[in-house]
Specification:
By secondary structure, this protein is an all-alpha fold. The protein has six helices and no strands. It is 59% helix and 0% strand. It binds heme C.
């Protein structure tokens, strides 16, 4: 009995711990980009690994936020945006804003 109820409890505690102390990179646009986006869009957001991938640097912040929200939700699914859907899945709205701010400043 004790064993049966134990693991969900541990999982709950682990989730609470995650939510409480967000790691430093969680809302740092530069760090987030480096971690999740650099591989395709380039370190400066302006040198994509494929010439057909979009250059993001300096793009309008509002536009970026809207595109990222739409790719995440599936509202934008044309072209190659499927490549990004999985990447956007764990990205929160707060992180989208942080990423957009950083990209705009490049
Ligand atoms: C696997 C490669 C890959 C990764 C990783 C990736 N992207 Fe993309 N991204 C693409 C491709 C390809 C497109 C073009 C999609 C299309 O054809 O509509 C795109 C499109 C975009 C767009 C829309 C640009 C526009 O002009 O409309 C934004 C904004 C963007 N990516 C930001 C990001 C951010 C932020 C991350 C990290 C969280 C990221 N991408 C990670 C490949 C990637």
């Amino acid at each position: 009995m004790l064993k049966k109820n134990f693991s969900p409890m541990i999982a709950g505690i682990a989730l609470l711990a995650l939510g409480a102390g967000s790691p430093a990179w969680a809302t740092d646009g530069a760090a987030l980009f480096k971690k999740s986006c650099l591989a395709c869009h380039g370190a400066d957001a302006n040198t994509p690994i494929q010439p057909i991938y979009p250059r993001l640097a300096g793009q309008n912040e509002e536009y970026l936020i809207n595109q990222l929200r739409d790719i995440k939700s599936g509202a934008r699914k044309g072209g190659m945006s499927m490549l990004m859907m999985g990447i956007m899945a764990p990205i929160t709205d707060e992180q989208i804003v942080a990423l957009a701010k950083w990209i705009t400043a490049q």
